[in-house]
Write a structure and sequence with these properties.
The chain is α/β, with parallel strands linked by helices and 147 residues long. It is 28% helix and 23% strand. It has a single domain (3-146), classed as 3-Layer(aba) Sandwich (Glutaredoxin), CATH 3.40.30.10. The chain has a 7-stranded mixed beta sheet with strand order 2-1-3-4-5-6-7, sandwiched between helices. The longest helix is centred in the N-terminal third of the chain and has 12 residues, at 37-48.
């Protein structure tokens, strides 16, 4: 159920309206710390994959995550919203696109922690496997994809 994510998107992230990019892709709004370079790298990864991205610097990331309903064990460095879904952490753009195409009844996607081989981290010499998890408003998770 996307109720928490929709309320979060409408009230906190998107402000007075929902804006669509020229490609008709929903806008990805990213809340991040102003000093976190990997968050900016992830935003660039999303842009490179055709998304329009709005970056919002905030010192209050714990509050953003709490308002979004991100379970603590799924937390990462940045929290984004796109089309009513929460995107937590370094989720690959292809997974976000698949989420939007399939439109499951879920709160969003998460890549917990900061895997060194995930988009935006891209630590040289690492090819560490990681998973993207689909999560619901009640904290249920399942593997959405493996990388």
């Amino acid at each position: 159920m996307r109720i928490t994510a929709v309320a979060f998107a409408a009230g906190l992230l998107l402000g007075p309206g929902i804006v669509l990019a020229e490609s008709h892709q929903p806008v990805v709004t990213v809340h991040k710390s102003p000093t976190c370079g990997c968050c900016g790298n992830w935003a660039e990864h999303m842009r490179d994959n055709g998304f329009t991205v709005v970056e919002k610097d905030t010192e209050g990331m714990p509050q953003v995550k709490a308002l979004a309903g991100v379970p603590g064990d799924l937390a990462s460095c940045h929290t984004a919203v796109v089309d009513g879904y929460i995107i937590e952490g370094h989720v690959p753009a292809a997974d976000v696109r698949r989420l939007l195409n399939e439109a499951p009844d879920a709160a969003g996607l998460a890549v917990p922690g900061m895997p060194p081989s995930s988009p935006g981290m891209d630590v040289p010499g690492y090819d560490t496997p990681y998973e993207t998890l689909l999560f619901t408003d009640d904290g249920q998770t399942k593997v959405f994809s493996r990388h």
